Amino acid sequence: MADPFIARNTQTIQSAADTLPLFTEYGYDFDTQQFLYDENGNNVTVTEDEALKVWIYKAILTERYRYLAYHDEYGITVEPYQGTMPNNVYTADRIRQNIREGLSINPYIAKINSITITKRENDDLEITVNVTSIYSDDSLTVTAGRSV
Predict the structure, then answer these.
(1) Is residue 6 part of a domain?
(2) Looking at the 3D structure of the chain, how many domains does it have?
(3) Is the model more confident about 15 or about 103?
(4) How are beta strands 124-133 and 109-121 bridged, if at all?
(5) CATH at residue 64
(6) Tens digit of pLDDT for each residue in 122-147?
(7) Crossing angle, helix 89-103 and helix 48-61, to 10 degrees?
(8) Rounded distance, CA 125 to CA 76, Å?
(9) Is residue 37 part of a domain?
């Protein structure tokens, strides 16, 4: 399957922002976990940092390799660790590494600042990711909950 993003090169962040097309996603309400629609029932689209938040949120919630609709590089691998391994720092580090690998395919992410896994109860995880995009120096924080 073809790579969903343009191949990265060693250009600076500013030139990456100039050469990559504008990042666009469907708007998403993180509280109700539903896509946003306008008064006519059409999907609302968002761009740049807001679009990147949606992409990160959906990538965290998507189990890698499970769905044929997604590229093999999209999503994160969490399920092998949930319910089968102890909830400890080692497991959290392995999940954190899988998240870093899953997010690093996106050329619109300039830097992954931090990945925090807070809620590790039963099969539930709460994942908070802080990144810097190619669009601004301000960091973006996205929190998503996963459970199996």
Answers:
(1) no
(2) 1
(3) 103
(4) antiparallel
(5) 3.10.450.40
(6) 566 778 888 998 988 877 788 776 65
(7) 130
(8) 13
(9) yes
Distance CA 123, CA 28 (A): 25
Task: Give which of 73, 148, 144, 80 is closest to 115, Cα–Cα.
Answer: 144
* Structural domain boundaries enclosing 88: 13-147
Residues 137, 20, 30, 64, Cα dihedral to 10°: -110
First and final C-alpha spacing in the chain: 27
* Within a domain: 133: yes
HSE (side-chain half, CA atoms, 13 Å) at 102: 27
Place of tokens 């109700």: 32
pTM of the predicted model, to two decimals? 0.78
- Give the residue ranges of DSSP H helices in the chain: 13-19, 48-61, 89-103
Residues 129 and 114 sit within 8 Å (Cβ to Cβ): yes
Rounded-to-integer distance, Cα 130 and Cα 148, Å: 24
**C-beta separation of 11 from 28 below 8 A:** no
E strand residue ranges, the chain: 24-26, 28-29, 34-35, 45-47, 109-121, 124-133, 139-147
Average pLDDT over residues 109-130: 79
